[in-house]
Amino acid sequence: MIIARPDWFGRRKYTGWGVSIKTWQGAAYIAGMISILLVVQLIPNLSTDFRLIITGIWMAFLLVDMADVMWKLKKDERERIHEAIAERNAAWGMMLVLVIGLFIEVTYYALQQKIYVDPFIITALIVGVILKSVTNYKLERED
Prior knowledge:
mainly alpha
């Protein structure tokens, strides 16, 4: 545990990934973290480089702290199954949009007699295939 406690937050179910505030302590934690960011941004005569460094450290701390909270959130078996199904459906939706986007992009550039594919789209699709393959391999080996 770093600062935030898992019992202050709940699993975000309807508005994306991450956590939602469950108690007043969670609200106070988030308000405090946002206040720190605002104070840093409002300090006069602070160089842009130093402001960037402080903001980066703040962001890294917040990400590590929230990752710790998400890892430690208690979920029963039903919640785990619901989350797994929701994550699967979200992944399928994102893959569909990426493939359609890739197709549109390739078609657009082909009509202009050019060859270009956004490396982020290709990387996202390749990483998805690799992660799925590794996960299936690992799960099959455990059975």
